[in-house]
UniProtKB/TrEMBL annotation:
<protein>
    <recommendedName>
        <fullName>3-hydroxyisobutyrate dehydrogenase</fullName>
        <ecNumber>1.1.1.31</ecNumber>
    </recommendedName>
</protein>
<keyword id="KW-0560">Oxidoreductase</keyword>
<dbReference type="GO" id="GO:0006574">
    <property type="term" value="P:L-valine catabolic process"/>
</dbReference>
<dbReference type="InterPro" id="IPR002204">
    <property type="entry name" value="3-OH-isobutyrate_DH-rel_CS"/>
</dbReference>
<dbReference type="Pfam" id="PF14833">
    <property type="entry name" value="NAD_binding_11"/>
</dbReference>
<feature type="domain" description="6-phosphogluconate dehydrogenase NADP-binding">
    <location>
        <begin position="4"/>
        <end position="163"/>
    </location>
</feature>
<dbReference type="Pfam" id="PF03446">
    <property type="entry name" value="NAD_binding_2"/>
</dbReference>
<keyword id="KW-0520">NAD</keyword>
<comment type="pathway">
    <text>Amino-acid degradation; L-valine degradation.</text>
</comment>
<keyword id="KW-0101">Branched-chain amino acid catabolism</keyword>
<dbReference type="InterPro" id="IPR006115">
    <property type="entry name" value="6PGDH_NADP-bd"/>
</dbReference>
<dbReference type="InterPro" id="IPR011548">
    <property type="entry name" value="HIBADH"/>
</dbReference>
<comment type="similarity">
    <text>Belongs to the HIBADH-related family.</text>
</comment>
<dbReference type="GO" id="GO:0051287">
    <property type="term" value="F:NAD binding"/>
</dbReference>
<dbReference type="InterPro" id="IPR008927">
    <property type="entry name" value="6-PGluconate_DH-like_C_sf"/>
</dbReference>
<dbReference type="GO" id="GO:0008442">
    <property type="term" value="F:3-hydroxyisobutyrate dehydrogenase activity"/>
</dbReference>
<feature type="active site">
    <location>
        <position position="172"/>
    </location>
</feature>
Length: 296
């Protein structure tokens, strides 16, 4: 039997994710505060609802893809929260990137009502959301994770179970802290070589075949013109915004303080992205951190 899916939050990521569910023949009902993105999904074949409560009325699965933890908590467990309105056998999948403690707070409230919920943040960005090749990093009961796999596989290629509730968010934040660190390192190395008169394309090939090789060099080169079809070659438009990277780095530092983990490079990357953001780069792709090091 086809599952009814409610999808809430149809932005850069949620919109293409919901479209992939439709392409895979799920019945999808959508809601977003922004009427334009709702109209776009309607044209793609979704049912639409005027509010979140109406969207989840007959849902077997609810997926949310929202900006932050305050919004996710308010949606599910705030005054008139959705967990008081859902079907008993619903499965809630929150794919937003939020603090592990916020994910656990929603999961605990669900557990008290006997409702299944997993955190399932994603890695891969907008291109992977469109291609249906996201990586899902899940936290929650193994049985709930198993139940989510069919739906997640319509939107992603790799689906991991990181552990109990909140573990998906912890793993996602660790990954994004590492991503920021190697992007900053790649940008400063390429910039130093370029300032010495070397061709960044040649340097990139050398480092890819040497011990400095990493994901930023391989598929997301921050130096304009080295690689086609990446944000650096398109004036740092599209991709993963500095504002969102700063949010994730902030979450990494909250987690570091809470778990008394030393993250000196994570702290440095957080500061560098905050400086970059304060200089007006919040809407640019995160690889634009290279511009912080370039001579003006
Ligand atoms: P976005 O700002 O493009 O989309 C968020 C959507 O949520 C918007 O359409 C907004 O109108 C809607 N919204 C906000 N509050 C709402 C509410 N109360 N009810 C209904 N709709 C509401 O953000 P995005 O880039 O799609 O990111 C979503 C989440 O995915 C974030 O947590 C982000 O950190 C994470 N993420 C983003 C990327 C990326 O590359 N953009 C990659 C991985 C993870």
């Amino acid at each position: 039997m086809t599952q009814n899916i409610a999808f809430i939050g149809l932005g850069n990521m949620g919109g293409p994710m919901a479209k992939n569910l439709i392409k895979n023949d799920f019945k999808v009902t959508v809601y977003d505060l922004n009427a334009h993105v709702v109209a776009d999904l309607k044209a793609a074949g979704a049912n639409t609802a005027d509010n979140a409560k109406a969207a989840i009325k007959d849902a077997d699965v609810i997926i949310s893809m929202l900006p932050n933890g305050a919004i996710v908590k308010s949606l599910y467990i705030g005054n008139n929260g959705l967990i008081n309105e859902v079907k008993d056998d619903v499965l809630i999948i929150d794919s937003s990137t939020i603090a592990a403690d916020d994910a656990r707070a929603v999961a605990k409230a669900c557990e008290r009502k006997g409702i299944a919920m997993i955190d399932a943040p994603v890695s891969g960005g907008t291109a992977a959301a469109e291609a249906g090749t996201l990586t899902f990093i899940c936290g929650g009961e193994p049985a709930h994770f198993e139940a989510a796999k069919l739906v997640l596989s319509a939107m992603g290629r790799h689906i991991f179970h990181a552990g109990a509730s909140g573990a998906g968010q912890v793993a996602k934040i660790c990954n994004n802290m590492l991503l920021a660190i190697h992007m900053v390192g790649t940008a400063e190395a390429l910039n130093m070589g370029a300032q010495q008169g070397l061709d960044p394309k040649v340097m990139s090939e050398i480092m890819k075949a040497s011990s400095g090789n990493n994901w930023s060099l391989q598929v997301y080169n921050p130096f304009p013109g080295v690689m086609p079809n990446v944000p650096s070659s398109n004036d740092y438009q599209g991709g993963f915004m500095v504002d969102l990277m700063s949010k994730d780095l902030g979450l990494s530092q909250e987690l570091a303080a809470k778990s008394k983990s030393a993250t000196p490079l994570g702290a440095m990357a957080t500061q560098l992205y905050q400086i970059h953001q304060a200089a007006g780069a919040g809407g640019k792709d995160f690889s634009s951190i290279l511009q912080l090091f370039q001579k003006k």
